[in-house]
Specification:
Elements (H helix, E strand, L loop, with lengths): L3 H11 L10 H10 L1 H7 L9 H24 L3 H10 L2 H4 L11 H7 L3 H9 L11 H28 L4 H29 L8 E8 L2 E7 L11 E7 L9 E5 L6 E4 L8 E9 L2 E2 L3 E8 L17 H16 L15 H13 L13 E9 L2 E5 L6 E5 L6 H11 L6 H9 L7 H20 L6 E2 L4 E2 L5 E8 L9 E5 H7 L11 H18 L7 E6 L2 E3 L4 E6 L7 E6 L6 H12 L16 H16 L11 E2 L5 E3 L3 E7 L6 E2 L13 E5 H9 L1
Parallel strand pairs: 9-14, 16-22, 17-23
Antiparallel strand pairs: 1-2, 2-5, 3-4, 3-6, 6-7, 6-8, 9-10, 9-11, 10-15, 12-14, 13-14, 16-19, 17-18, 18-24, 20-22, 21-22
């Protein structure tokens, strides 16, 4: 049995009027789409449909309604409604590029009524012009036909209204007359818009840059003229000749979200000239030559034939690890490893205790020692034990070695969580030695295995860059991992972070908080750090600032809090490639041992890279709170460009050699503003590799 909604929809489709709808129809149709109609369409029980034919009929009815609503909104020049529909419906749902019964598309109506805002919105959504208009003559003839037929229909209806006596039929004809009069005016306005339009001016600017050793990037801007019709596409042409004869290639860009194009497959070392022209319904406008007038595909590595620094590194490391595993394959350490007791004097008591507490081996309190905790989070929730405790296991209760070296070793281990068992087997062979370091590291591996076993997951995430220490002698190493899927874990459950913070009863005083209390107080800051450390830079060339400071047992590097896996930086430009010519200029600058280039250098001021660097250096000096006059003693690192993949590259700005690394006790007169922190260099290197 069909539902009443199905019957209503079929009636709507069956009663499609032969003439155009009235101007008020747009509001009614849009209300149907955004309210009752949309709910009815999605609320049908599939079992109530007679078959696939009924479902297809319903789908077509839905598409017809949404398509008609869009046409009406464009015809009424209702920008807000058009934008709302484009936001909530896909191009397929709106049937965006299917002509109506008059052979027109929504974009045709927008551009011929010269409604630039609606036309741009439609173009951004992927709208096209009607394929029926193959020439200016065909478009003009089609518009004239529409105007003539609409005028004829108006005259017919007017004669019927005048000659007939007032009745119900006459009232209906009056409504049709008003609708046709409105459509007649629309077609006349479209015809006038087409007749008064002219071809577009040239793009206001065309910028050419070197994207790689085999490609060029072209960026262009809309024509400045406001009197011509809306531009619907652009054409990029390139040639080795300034006269563009012969033409080597061309590309038409009709997706106008971003006005740029990359020319691929070019020959390195060859000069290419580029120009761009715009198109509207009257045809192609004049071309605009690029600035600079030509460019040569190249890359800075061609200057001395240098290979990429990281080429083959991952494969070499995998091969080296395989060799190490092969060497250990027949060693005694390859035998299955049994968990050894951490301290002989505690072994019996702990074993008895575990007999009476079989459910959980996580710790509730800390008793002066070295511990490992794993924080798993999803949105605003965090994983806790059934006792509402963050998972904590003991590493060593008699820890007395230097912490930093063992901690940094553990951060490297975090890159191979799946190999913990193998590492434990390898370290076991050294248990007979009295090395404090080996003993501690073996206990770290045991604690990691215990945490993995209790949680039922191998990957414990990223190690936070510094352990938590309290005045009671506890040291807490923290790992962080974001869970993006609905995973299930053993012995733990999800709890909102705010609930955990408010419900936990502190066992320490506010003056001397325990490491667990310190963790709970700062957990949201740590989660924010973890999320920011995984963010990636947008494609482009950046200027980075390298500043180090040393301590007794480590070197730390200055980084921004918002992107702690990257040096302090500013963006120079969106194109990450440094061409050979630009690199030659940088080498010449370095060879004369000059400081950072100054604005008085007139010969270099014509170099686009020079101008971009001037702006970037000023911005960077302001960012790190260094007076601009001090920049005269800084220098650009000229040994290489730091490439991070194919889309991000860095030039480094270095302080004077004596100030690159601040020694302990050395005064730094220029303290960065808030928003920065210093990371151990090894932690920063691991974060950058992630």
């Amino acid at each position: 049995k069909m539902t009443q909604q199905m019957r209503d929809l079929q009636l709507v489709q069956a009663r499609k009027p032969p003439g155009p709808s009235s101007p008020n129809a747009a509001k009614r149709l849009y209300r149907n789409l955004s309210g009752k109609f949309r709910v009815n369409y999605t609320s049908f029980d599939e079992g109530s449909l007679v078959g696939r034919g009924e479902k297809e009929k319903l789908r077509k009815s839905y598409l017809f309604q949404s398509n008609a609503a869009l046409f009406e909104a464009v015809e009424l020049q209702d920008l807000d409604r058009v934008q709302e529909m484009l936001k909530h419906y896909s191009p397929e749902e709106l049937d965006l590029n299917t002509p109506n019964s008059e052979g027109l598309l929504p974009l045709d109506i927008a551009i011929m009524t010269n409604n630039a805002p609606i036309a741009r919105a439609l173009l951004q959504a992927g709208a096209k012009e009607s394929p029926h208009f193959v020439s200016l003559e065909s478009r003009s003839l089609h518009l004239s036909t529409l105007v003539r037929e609409a005028e004829q229909r108006v005259n017919e209806l007017m004669a019927q209204v005048v000659n007939e006596a007032p009745n119900a039929d006459c009232s209906e004809k009056e409504k049709q007359l008003k609708a046709w009069e409105w459509r007649f005016r629309l077609y006349k306005r479209m015809k006038a818009g087409f007749e008064h339009a002219r071809v577009p001016d040239a793009p206001s600017s065309v910028h050419l840059s070197v994207a790689s050793s085999s490609s060029l990037q072209v960026t262009f801007w809309e024509p400045l003229s406001v009197n011509s019709a809306v531009v619907t596409k652009y054409k990029v042409e390139w040639s080795c000749s300034p006269s563009f004869s012969p033409l080597l290639g061309e590309a038409v860009i009709d997706k106008l979200k971003e006005l740029h194009f990359t020319i691929q497959g070019l020959v390195s070392g060859t000069a290419y000239h580029v120009r761009v022209s715009a198109y509207n319904m009257k045809g192609w406008g004049p071309p605009q030559a690029s600035t600079p007038p030509f460019a040569i595909p190249s890359n800075w590595r061609e200057y001395d034939g240098r290979a990429p620094r990281r080429r083959g590194q991952a494969e070499a490391l995998d091969h080296l690890l395989g060799q190490v595993k092969t060497v250990h394959q027949h060693c005694i350490c390859h035998e299955p490893c049994k968990n050894q007791p951490q301290s002989r004097k505690h072994s019996v008591s702990k074993s008895l205790k575990h007999l009476f507490h079989p459910g959980s081996k996580f710790l509730k309190t800390l008793k002066r020692g070295l511990y490992l905790t794993a924080i798993f989070y999803k949105d605003d929730n965090i994983l806790v034990t059934h006792e509402d405790q963050i998972p904590v296991v003991e590493i060593d209760d008699t820890y007395s070695c230097l912490l930093m070296q063992d901690f940094l070793w553990l951060t490297k281990v975090s890159c191979m969580w799946d190999e913990i068992l193998w590492l434990r087997q390898c370290v076991t062979v050294s248990q007979s030695s009295c090395s404090c370091i080996l003993q501690t590291r073996f206990k770290m591996l045991l604690a990691i295995s215990q945490m993995q076993g209790l949680l039922g997951i191998q990957d414990l995430g990223q190690v936070f860059f510094e352990p938590i220490k309290d005045k009671q002698g506890n040291i807490l190493i923290v790992t962080l991992k974001e869970v993006k899927t609905n995973q299930t874990f053993e012995s733990v459950r999800w709890v909102p972070i705010c609930k955990l913070q408010s419900s936990r009863k502190s066992v320490s005083s506010p003056e001397e908080p325990s490491a667990l209390d310190m963790l709970l107080i700062s957990v949201q800051d740590k989660l924010a750090y973890h999320q920011r450390s995984s963010h990636a830079l947008s494609p482009g060339l950046y200027l980075g600032y390298l500043k180090l400071c040393s301590a007794v047992d480590q070197i730390r590097v200055l980084v921004p809090e918002q992107l702690p896996n990257i040096l302090c930086h500013v963006k120079i430009r969106s194109n990450p490639n440094i061409s050979r010519e630009e690199w030659e200029w940088l080498q010449k600058t370095a060879s004369v041992e000059e400081p950072v280039p100054t604005e008085t250098d007139a010969d270099r001021s014509q170099n686009p890279l020079f101008q971009e660097l001037q702006v970037a250096i000023k911005e960077l000096m302001t960012l790190v709170n260094i007076p601009l006059q001090e920049a005269k003693d800084f220098r650009l690192y000229s040994q290489e460009v730091l490439d991070f993949g194919d889309q991000v590259s860095f030039l480094l700005l270095l302080p004077p050699s004596d100030d690159v690394c601040t020694a302990p006790g050395q005064n730094n007169p220029y303290t960065p503003r808030s928003g920065f922190l210093t990371l151990p260099l090894q932690i920063f290197e691991l974060g950058e590799k992630r």
